[in-house]
Design brief:
Layout: H1 3-38, H2 43-65, H3 71-124, H4 146-175, H5 184-188, H6 194-212, H7 214-226, H8 232-274, E1 280-283, E2 286-289, H9 292-335
Antiparallel strand pairs: 1-2
Length: about 325
């Protein structure tokens, strides 16, 4: 090899690191973009994580191409890798923030749809009827994409599963003729109140059955999280959050079952008053009592029933409001 060739080879060796640095930065940027897709924290957290990766990557690059150079070259490579990774991570995080916002807004709209249906039924129902059917909507595709699309799918699905659970309960009550329990004309012709007792016993059994099945709703939710197309770390984060929320949510549901039992008891008390048919009569559609004492007793139980129904509705509204607030907080955390 002549002197000119040696000179050219030496120059090439000196420039070799510049040839490999751009594709190395591109590979590092790709890794950062994927990390941004999986990152459940803030950009500040990701930036710190990327700095470690850039430092390690620069050390490996320095060892391969720049061993005989000064430490300044290591700093240059480290900065180049970090800038590339930070830019890619930022782009990925911005995309994730956008999808998070879409997912949370879509889930809130679904929750509001169910809340509106519930309120409509509460406003229109007869005071002697415990509940009304809340119909669930058709399954909808998530509006967000990627992992937040999967999260959105789960949130919507779980809300509709909860509504379907209530629907099943209410349909069984309707099948047991619960909607006729305080039909005064029916009661008037109910010999020895036998039919009323049968309906009441069926209703109590249905309440006990669904109260005992409450855990199945949450077990199904956990199973659905495991089936999502997400990495295991994200699934575990969702499970942890779901389990924390389930503790409060289940406590509220169990409280509602207790209120449901109290409401049934007050209706049973009203039936006891009406069991003495000599003390009341029907004048057209109007229930008329023959003495003040019986009227007062009936009205007391009816007022207690109304108070219980009001407490159920207020508890329901508080729960919906709290859920909406928690969803906003979660979205704000994703946007940081």
């Amino acid at each position: 090899m002549n002197e000119q060739d040696q000179t050219n080879t030496s120059r090439l060796n000196k420039l070799l690191w510049l040839i490999f640095l751009p594709p190395t930065c591109a590979a590092a940027a790709y890794i950062a973009y994927q990390l941004g897709n999986k990152n459940m924290g803030s950009m500040a957290y990701l930036a710190g994580q990327l700095f470690i990766y850039a430092a390690v990557g620069a050390a490996a690059f320095y060892g391969l191409f720049l061993r005989k150079r000064g430490g300044a070259y290591y700093i240059i490579v480290c900065l180049a890798l970090y800038v590339a990774m930070f830019a890619a991570g930022q782009i990925s995080m911005d995309k994730q923030k956008l999808q998070a916002g879409v997912a949370m807004q879509s889930a809130k709209e679904e929750m509001q749809r169910l809340a509106t249906a519930i309120q409509k039924n509460n406003d229109s129902k007869d005071g002697n009827v415990l509940s009304q059917i809340v119909e669930t909507g058709p399954a909808t595709m998530p509006k967000a994409s990627g992992r937040f699309g999967e999260m959105e799918r789960f949130m919507k699905d779980f809300m509709n599963s909860a509504a379907a659970f209530k629907n099943d309960y209410l349909r069984e009550l309707n099948a047991a003729d619960w909607d006729r329990i305080m039909d005064y004309k029916r009661i008037q012709h109910d010999k020895d109140m036998l039919e009323s007792k049968i309906i009441m016993d069926k209703a109590k059994a249905i309440i006990s059955k669904f109260e005992a099945s409450t855990d199945s709703l949450y077990d199904t939710g956990r199973a659905k999280i495991h089936s999502l197309s997400l990495d295991e770390d994200t699934k575990q984060s969702m499970l942890d959050g779901f389990n924390r929320g389930a503790q409060n949510s289940k406590a509220q549901i169990m409280q509602n079952w207790q209120l449901e039992k109290k409401a049934v008891q007050e209706i049973e008390n009203m039936l006891m008053v009406l069991s003495d048919k000599k003390k009341w009569t029907m004048q057209g559609e109007q229930l008329t009592f023959r003495d003040q004492a019986t009227l007062t007793k009936f009205n007391q139980h009816q007022q207690k029933l109304q108070d219980i129904l009001k407490e159920q509705e207020e508890t329901q509204q508080r729960h919906l409001k709290k859920s909406s607030t928690e969803m906003d907080k979660l979205n704000n955390n994703f946007q940081k």
